[in-house]
Design goal:
The protein has 4 helices and 4 strands; from the N terminus they run E-H-H-E-E-H-E-H. It is α+β, with helices and mostly antiparallel strands. The chain has one domain: Fusion Protein Consisting Of Minor Coat Protein, Glycine Rich Linker, Tola, And A His Tag, Chain: A, Domain 2 (2-Layer Sandwich), CATH 3.30.1150. Strands 1-4-2-3 form a 4-stranded antiparallel β-sheet, covered by helices on one side. The two termini are 13 Å apart. A hairpin with a 4-residue loop joins strand 2 and strand 3. The longest helix has 13 residues.
Length: 132
Amino acid sequence: MPEAKELYTPGTKVPKSFTNYLTPELYQEIEKIDFGPYLTIVQKKLHANWIAPHLYKKNKIVVKFLIHRDGTISGLHMVGSSGFAEADKAALDAVNKSIPLEPLPENYHGAVVPFEFTFDYAPYSPQANEAQ
């Protein structure tokens, strides 16, 4: 079964690579907020909506988007393709099926938060599944 890579853990701050979407004031606010619990909820929802095709090669897909205050998203795009069209489509479909996400945390005053998510594929082995 495919597993979503856990990018965020409690206490995680938004990576600086996302700050091109934020004003200096909002970046300072983000630095003070623990987004870990919120991002865990988002991650679980994405994973629950991910119907991954069987692959025989380990791979990953990376998507990036903005989460708006009300949980809607915009700017969904792939920043790392698996090289398999079916797998890439499954990752994008998982994000689209997850809309709306949870509203942004109340203690965050910005309109959006940039988000990056990695879908990891573990090799599929028919022999391993038959043994179970």
